[in-house]
Amino acid sequence: MSDCLFCKIRDGEIQGDIVFEDDDVLAFNDVNPHAPVHVLIIPKKHISTVNDMSAEDVSVMGKLFSTAKNIALQRDVSEDGYRLVVNSNKQAGQSVFHIHMHLLGGNKLGPMVDRID
Ligand code: DGP
What we know:
Layout: H1 5-10, E1 18-21, E2 25-29, E3 37-43, H2 58-74, E4 82-85, E5 101-105
Antiparallel strand pairs: 1-2, 2-3, 3-5, 4-5
This protein binds 2'-deoxyguanosine-5'-monophosphate (DGP).
């Protein structure tokens, strides 16, 4: 059994508020939303970080973007705008080590990162 939280949501061992699923991709609402729309989009395949991607994973990463586009349309944030974020490793704030794309929208978002001088 996997220790990965998002693999457990994928496998139904932990309940997820799923908004989209196909053979390769799963999307569910973030448990701790930072915006009115905050959806996490993951490859079903366990890949820990962007650093762990291989050539065969390129197409599923493209599917994360097309899924984000479709969900943004469904949730009516396409026109006003939304943000897609993939944190990679600890210093970037990654806390769950299964690649996930954050889709954030529904209000005006602040600066993407604190300015570092
Ligand atoms: P990151 O910091 O980029 O690794 O984002 C991880 C996100 O995962 C964070 O926004 C909170 C969310 N999260 C953590 N645990 C759960 C959970 O059990 N269910 C759901 N739906 N989201 C979770």
